[in-house]
Structure of S-methyl-5-thioribose kinase:
Amino acid sequence: MTGSRTGDYRILQEAALRDYLAGLPDIKKLLGGEPAVWSITEVGDGNLNLVFIVKGASGGIAVKQALPYVRLVGESWPLPLSRAHYEYLALSRQARLAPGLVPALLHHNETLALTVMELLEPHIIMRKGLVAGTRYPRFVDDITTFMARTLFFTSDLALIAAEKKEAIASFAGNHALCKITEDLIFTDPYRIAEQNRWTAPYLDGLAASLREDMELHVAISRLKLKFMSSPEALLHGDLHTGSIMVTASETRVIDPEFAFFGPMGFDVGAVLANLLMAYFASAGHERAAGERREFETWMLETVEQVWSEFARRFLDLWRSEASGDAYPVSLFAGEKGAMRLEAERQAYMQRLFIDTVGFAAAKTIRRIFGLAHNIDFELIEDPRKRAISEARAIRLARGMMVEAAAFRTIADVTGAARKLREWQPELSG
Ligand code: SR1
Ligand code: MG
């Protein structure tokens, strides 16, 4: 499966990619027919890479190649190609831990920073479906299975200490991608930064207030420290709804190039934040007032179920599959030990919930005031309407970040979101 290390990196445009793929016997066979008539389309709409869809007479594939710079910004922002290696490593591990929930890997070439994967069709990027108001009945089961299994089985609850430390080391080189997160999520939205942007002029006042808000600066700095210094488990690292492809009956998690060992709440918070943003954006996509109420009800139910099902699955794994060096069995013998350990499991989940709430808030604020925005809000054409949706999301996020511990349950979060849906913010301009 792994390609050769010979030759230098070069960006493969259509002709070169065709030749390259034609030289891979298994891929050539899968595509079928003459390479000259394969259709090759560049479809990458993410911030970093090239993505091609290639179709032949009998099949299709997706090809992802890392660029040596940030695509969204250009060559002025170099970025190591090694992220393709970490993405491949993460995908391989996720495929073992959560079978059927990531795309199948067909070929990888380290030198070209290129990976060939199964073509996900008719799957679409979940974010696009949510903007259109589509509900996904498999989503809760699939994403909570993915998170519970990938996080639990890469944690000290499942791994012995030596394995865990080796695993941390194998992802430690992905620090350039971590630095993007450290800057774009945990720092820039709270200071003047060249690449920040927001819905001006309506959110000018809110942007300025974020830069003055010392309680928020303390809270985001605590989260940043936790992100940098808590290698709890192998994270996907960028688990937003643009990294999830869906149909009504299937879910696939893609793009783990930000993978590293970090705090579990960062992944869980990413999913919750992006669902909450889709919820707040929904009002801005209405053509008639109230037409998306049922969708919005489903969104908040989904937020609740994502946390509760994740927690249930994670705890079940802990009760039945714990084989790591943490919480030695010998320290929790007998009925008394079992009861105390169960109480500790509940306390652990409560701490994880507080982390999740905080990270979800950080993920929300960065999409409204930082460099990289999301189409949930961006596709709201009327900037005033967009600003109203964004201001509601920010009000919730500030509370979640500064008073994370006041949100005892996920229903506290959805309850606050539901109330804010009716709140009319005062806008600038
Ligand atoms: C410069 S990269 C901007 C963002 O795109 C990725 O999807 C990550 O979320 C990153 O923060
Ligand atoms: Mg991505």
Remarks:
- Residues 1-6 have pLDDT under 50 and may be disordered.
- The two ends are 57 Å apart (CA to CA).
- The chain has two domains: 14-118, 124-420.
- Residues 47-48, 70, 72, 180-181, 184, 238, 372 surround 5-S-methyl-5-thio-alpha-D-ribofuranose (ligand 1) (CB under 6 Å).
